[in-house]
Amino acid sequence: MAIESGSRAWGFPSPDSDYDVRIIYLHTSDWYLSINDKKDTMDYFLGKLLDINGWDIRKALRLLRKSNATPFEWVQSPMVYFEEIGFRNELLDLARQYFQPYHTLNHYKGIARNSYYKNLLDGKIKLKKLFYVIRPIFAINWIIKKKTVPPMDIFNLMEAVDDESIKAEIKKLIKVKETANEDFVYTIDPNIKSFIENQFSLIENVELEQERSTPDIEVLNNYYRNLLKRYDR
Question: What confidence score (pLDDT) does residue 233 get?
């Protein structure tokens, strides 16, 4: 599959946003039958327009087993450039089986805190970076309330946020971002600042089970083997 993974898929692109294309690919069987470790990623950049990154299927499945949020998001992207029919649904089903709320929440917490404290200066922050704080916070709200794999895009994530005034402000900022380039600097609204910092405090005190029962690794191994049989040419 090849999908969009950046702000265009998250629901808040700028006029000069690049295309963050993410790929999951499969080699032929012979490629895997080697005593050498081989590169399991691919990268391609074209100026400021294209940022393409790909993972071998084994890397994707290993991260999925660890409840890494990245493959969870990729398979839910609303912008699909290419897909072997049914593949994303298969991977999303596996993601739901291996989902660990605690681990995925920590992933989003790290992104939100780093984006906020590294980029906020004298009450100002690039609007692009503010959304790197808000979307993960919304995802955390989803995990806490629903304990399921959170959606990728910000509009669906808003379902789990109770504060209607904050949602209204974020929707206004999405409209601003539609016409403002990615270097646009935003003076943070006191209500948004208070919301973010209150959320950080709440997140630190939330209690989630650290490990929930998930299927044996052989479920993923069998899926991988079946993919090889299905597509090996």
Answer: 66
